[in-house]
Amino acid sequence: MDWMAGVNVPDEVGQKSLTKALAEKRCIPVFLDEEIVHQYYNGYCNNILWPLFHYLGLPQEDRLATTRSFQSQFAAYKKANQMFADVEYNSKMKVGWFLHTPFPSSEIHRTLPSRSELLRSVLAADLVGKPEGVEDQGKLTRVAAFPIGIDSERFIRALEVPDVIQHMKELKERFAGRKVMLGVDRLDIIKGIPQKILAFEKFLEENASWRDKVVLLQIAVPTRTDVPEYQKLTSQVHEIVGRINGRFGTLTAAPIHHLDRSLDFYALCALYAVTDVALVTSLRDGMNLVSYEFVACQEAKKGVLILSEFAGAAQSLGAGAILVNPWNITEVAASIGQALNMSSEEREKRHRHNFHHVKTHTSQEWAETFVSELNDTVIEAQLRISKVPPELPQNDAIRRYSKSTNRLLILGFNATLTEPVDNQGRRGDQIKEMDLNLHPELKGPLKALCSDPNTTIVVLSGSSRSVLDKNFGEYDMWLAAENGMFLRLTNGEWMTTMPEHLNMEWVDSVKHVFKYFTERTPRSHFETHIEFGRLQARDLLQHLWTGPISNASVDVVQGSRSVEVRAVGVTKGAAIDRILGEIVHSKSMTTPIDYVLCIGHFLGKDEDVYTFFEPELPSDIIPAIARPRPSSDSGTKSSPGDRKPPSKSTHSKKHGSKSSSSSNSYNNNKASQRLSPEKISWNVLELKGENYFSCAVGRTRTSARYLLGSPDDVVCFLEKLADTTVPNSSSSS
C-alpha cells in the first residue's frame, strides 16, 4: 500500500526512518515536495475536481487565469500520481480505486477538460469503488459501491473516559432546561450552513414557545481561508448568526452558539453525547461521517438525526433519520419541530436502526470488503483472460485460404474496415466517426479479393444501404445492410430479406421518437434501421420503453455510441441463412463452401454470426439451400425492398440428408406472383473446423475463435490475403 506521508520530511535521514517504520505496517511512503503538493492537492484536487464532484462547476472568476493554472495543476497532478506508481510498479499488481463521493453525472463531468484522460486512467484499475463493470478497449473494470464507515468503538469507548464524562456534566449544566441542537461542519459551500441557520430562524419565528427552550450549537471548522468565496461565506454566516441572536436572544442567552474552530476528539464526543437533535444540511456530500459519529455517541440519549437527502449517508441512515431537502427552508424548519417533539418510543426505534448500522458498517469492515472484492475481481479477471481467444493465426488462415476451392468472406464494416478514428473523444473525430468511410488502404486488397471468382465477399453491417453503396459500390461483392435485412450484389438491386412474419407496426412511432431526439442532439444521426448518438441515450430509452415499444416485440440494442431498435430475432446471425440462400442462387453455385472467414466488431447481440458456422455445433443449424429458379420476367428492375428471397432456408443434416422446400413468392414492381420452385437439395457447406476462422476486432469478450486488435490489423491481414489471390483463375463455383 502506497501512502503519502502527510508531513514534510525534507532530510534523507528522516525519510529513511519513516520508511522503515511504515514498512512494518506494509506501507510505502511517497515523498512529494511542497510545490507539487500545493499544485496537485490544493490546486487540481481542491480547486478543480472537488467543486466539480460537488456540482459547483469549474472556477469562474478569471477564465483565462483558470485555464493557465489548470494546465500547471494538472501536470502536477499527473506527476504526483506517477510518483506513486513508480514507487511500487508491478504489471501483476492488483489495483483498487476508491472515490469518497458519488461520481457526478455525465453533464457535469463532461465539462472537465481532462475528462477522457482521467476516466481511462481510472479504468486501468481492476476494481473501482463506486452495474457490474465498465468495458474499455477490451479490459473489464468491476464497478461497485462501498459506503465507508467509522471506527464506532473508538467513539463508544471515549464516552467512558473520565474527562469526557466530566465535560458532559458541564455541558448539561450549561444548557439545563434547553434542548441542544448540534451542527458540525467544515465551513464549506456545500455544507449548507446558511440554509441550516435560516431554517432554525424560521422555526423560532413560528414556534415562540421554543425560543428559550432550544439552542443551536454550530461548529464551523475553517477551510481554505485564502479563497475569496470562502471568505464571503464566513462573513455571510456571521451576519446571519448575529441577526438571529439579536432578534431572538436575551442579555443572558443566545439561541445560536457559533464557533469558527475545531474541537478536540474528547470534547467533540462529549458534545455529541449531550445533543438532542443533530442537524446535517449538506447541499452535496459524498458521505458525511458526522452523522455516523453522532449516532455512535447516542446510545444513552437516543437523539434524533435530521439528515440531508443529498448526503451519501442518507442511503444508509435514512430509515432512522428525518430526511430533508436543505434548499426547502420550510421543510427543514418543520423537521426541527418534529424532532424536538418526537416521542421517546419513536426516538428509540429510529436510533436502534442507525446504531446497528454504524456498529456493523465500520471503517475496518469497509476496508476488508474493498480488499476482498479487489482480490475476487483479480481472480475473475484471470479466469476471463484464460477464456480470451488467441490472436488470429494469419499464416494458417492464409495457407488454408489458398488451398480451398470455394471461399466465403463475411466482413463487418464499422470498426473493422473503417478508417482509423482518434479515441480520445475530440469533437472533430466524433464527426469523423459518424461519417463512416472505408479505410483508404483497403481499396487495393478488396479489389484483388473480389476479382477472384472462387471467393465471395459479403459486407454485413448495421449501416444503411446508402452508406454501404457509397463505400463499396465499385467492388464486385455482396452488401448486407441494416443487420442483413437488405441485400444486394453491387451490380444488382436491393432486395429485402425480412421474414414475412415480422410485425413492424411499431416502426413509425419509434422513428418519431428518434427524430425528436436527433433534432435536439448535436452530431447525432438517424438511419432507417434506427441508430442514435450517445449523449441523450438514457432519456431516449425511457421515452421508448414507456411509449412506442412498451408492448412491442422488439429488442433494444445499445452500443457504445448508439441505440438500435430491432424486431425480436433480427440479428446478423439470423440473417445469414437467408443471405447464403440468395448468394447460392445468384451464383448458381454447385460446389460447397469449404472455407469461411468472418471478421467484425459486432455487438454482443450479433455475435451469433460467429457461432452460425461452427462445425462443432449441432448439424441441424447448417443450412442446405433450396432455391426457386426465377421466372423469365424476374429480370425486371425492382425498387428497393420489393424483391424478397425466401423467408426461411431449408435445413438439412451435415452429411446430405434429404430436405424439402416450400414455395416462396417474389414481388417485382409490376405484379406479385407465386412461383413454382425447382427443388435443389444439397449441402451448401462442407466446412471442416480448421477451415473456419471467426475473428472479433477490438473485443476480448467474444464468442469468436480469434482476435485482431484494430482495423489497422484487419488491413494488414487482408493485404497479405490479397497477395495470395490469383485473379481470373478458373472458377469452381
TrEMBL record:
Region described as Disordered: 623-674
CDD domains named in the record: GT20_TPS, HAD_TPP
InterPro entries: Glyco_trans_20, HAD-like_sf, Trehalose_PPase
Pfam families cross-referenced by the UniProt entry: Glyco_transf_20, Trehalose_PPase
Comp. bias intervals (Low complexity): 658-672
Protein's recorded name: Alpha,alpha-trehalose-phosphate synthase (UDP-forming)
Organism: Brassica napus (Rape)
Lineage: Eukaryota, Viridiplantae, Streptophyta, Embryophyta, Tracheophyta
